Amino acid sequence: MDVEAQVEQFRENFNRMKAEVHKRIVGQDEIIDGVLLCLLADGHVLLEGVPGLGKTQLIHTLSEALSLSFKRIQFTPDMMPSDITGTTLLVEDSQGQKQFEFRPGPIFAQIVLVDEINRATPRTQSALLEAMQERTVSVALTSYKLEEPFCVLATQNPLDMEGTYRLPEAQLDRFLFKLHIAFPAEDEMLQILRRTTSETVISIEKVCDAATIQSMRQLVRRVPIAEHLERYIIRLIRATHPDNPDAPEMTKQYVELGASIRGLQAITLTAKIKAMLDARYNVAFEDVQSVALPALRHRMILNFEGEGEGIRTDEVINHILESL
Prior knowledge:
By secondary structure, the chain is an alpha/beta fold. Helix content is about 45%, strand content about 15%. It contains 15 helices and 11 strands. The strands form 4 sheets. It has a 5-stranded parallel beta sheet. Strands 3-4 form a two-stranded antiparallel ribbon.
């Protein structure tokens, strides 16, 4: 299959996945696009929004449409790391002999929904780090490989809500995107009301599988990007660091810690997907700018002055994009 046919097939698969999710999810185009971008870029997603906006329904519907194994983990303050990764038990076989046997936890799935991730303690949250980065789980000196494709989609409540813990910076950096889910408009609420309070049963078709997802991921990495675009992304990342002499004044005034190398990779991979979805075979500046906010907003830490004045990282990123 030639390149043009592969890109067209990529777009068709993407649109079919999006259409299936829309059967149950009203609106939220930007959120659905962001989740699919992360999945195809081999990354993880952090979804932030108040309860009841359909975050869990979106992820469950996606796993159905992609024919991938799905597990849901509800984080609570008393949860332990072994509740996620699994544990080794001493069991007795049919012949009466005792031996250790590993019982895998819910992290052993292809689509893992981590619900209300910031309701668990940082110790429990950190149990996800190895799985998200290395695609392995280590229990009792033994490492277990996770099945590909593997994607963690975590939801969190706003930090000012009671009973929540701030996610460690190292864990935040493992998420490719952070997406903010807005409250639906009036017409969208009307559609939601009618769908959820009637006898209508919405069935989801399986429009993709693991092999197709892996193939699409490989194609993403083959999309060319010009050196001047690569240097533009590098300047963008460097401009988030207050100790960089070329950083904008807003960065120097309000930012304590800038984005990491993972931010560089996140922007590049998702910009390549954006190019293919627009039927182009190379990355443009517009592709980079369209993914900068979700790729960087959780990778920047504001200083005391920034937090005190109510500055949002989105404002700093937009200022950087304008200055570049």
